[in-house]
Amino acid sequence: MAFLHISLALLLTSIGVNAVVLFTLENRCDKTIWPGIQASAGQPQLMDGGLELKPQQSRNVTAPKGWSGRIWGRTGCKFNVYGDGTCTTGDCGTGLYCNGASGELPASLAEFTLDSPLDFYDVSLSDGFNLPISIFPYGDSGICPSIRCDTNLNPNCPPNLHVRGDDGEIVACKSACTAFQTPEYCCTGPYQNPNRCKPTRYTQYFKRLCPTSYTYAYDDPASTYTCRDTNYLIAFC
Hints:
Elements: H1 2-18, E1 20-27, E2 34-39, E3 58-64, E4 68-74, E5 78-79, E6 85-86, E7 109-113, E8 119-124, E9 133-138, E10 162-164, E11 170-173, H2 176-180, H3 183-186, H4 201-209, E12 225-227, E13 231-236
Parallel strand pairs: 1-13
Antiparallel strand pairs: 1-3, 2-4, 4-7, 5-6, 7-8, 8-12, 9-13, 10-11
C-alpha cells in the first residue's frame, strides 16, 4: 500500500511538472526594468501582468500548457507604494500591473504560443524597439534555437524614428509603420500581401542588427521558431 501511495505521488508530481512552462525573466541591463506580460484573449494573466527586475535579478513565471501572449520590458517607470505610476517606454497605462493591457509602442516583444501542438516563439520588432530582448530555450537538450536581439538599436536609430525621453536621450526606436502610418510601411490596403509589402531601409536596419527577429508583417517565416517540452529564458539587454 505504501508503494501505491509513493507511485501515485510521483505520478501527480509528473503531471504537475508537465502541465506548466517556466519563463525565467532575467535583467542583464544596468538599470531596473519592469517587464510587462499580456496574455492572449481567453488566457490567464501571469503575475497580474507586471513585475520589477533590478539589475542582474531574475524571476520565474509559470504558464499553463497552451498559454499564449507577449512579454516586453518597460523602462523609466515611477510607481508609488500602491503600484500607481507611468513608464517612459512600454507603458501599459495601469501602473505596475498591466492586468491584460498592452504596452505602448514602440516596444521589443517576446511572443509565445505554447503547445499548439508545438511551441511557437519569436522576438518581434515589427512594433519598434525599446530594449534588447532575447529568448533562450532551456531543458531541451540544446536542440531548439535561441533568438538573440542583444544589441541596443537606439543609439543609431534613424532620426525620423527617434523616441526621446524627458532628458533628450533616445529611449526607443519606432517602426516605420508606427512613425508614418502609411500602407506601404504597415502592409495594409493594396500592400496587404507579401508580394507587394517588402523590406524597407527601416526594417533592414532592425534586421541587420537582430537578424533572427521578426521585423515587419510579412517577414521571413524563418523568424518564427518552434520547440517542444521546454522552458524559456527571456533576457533583457
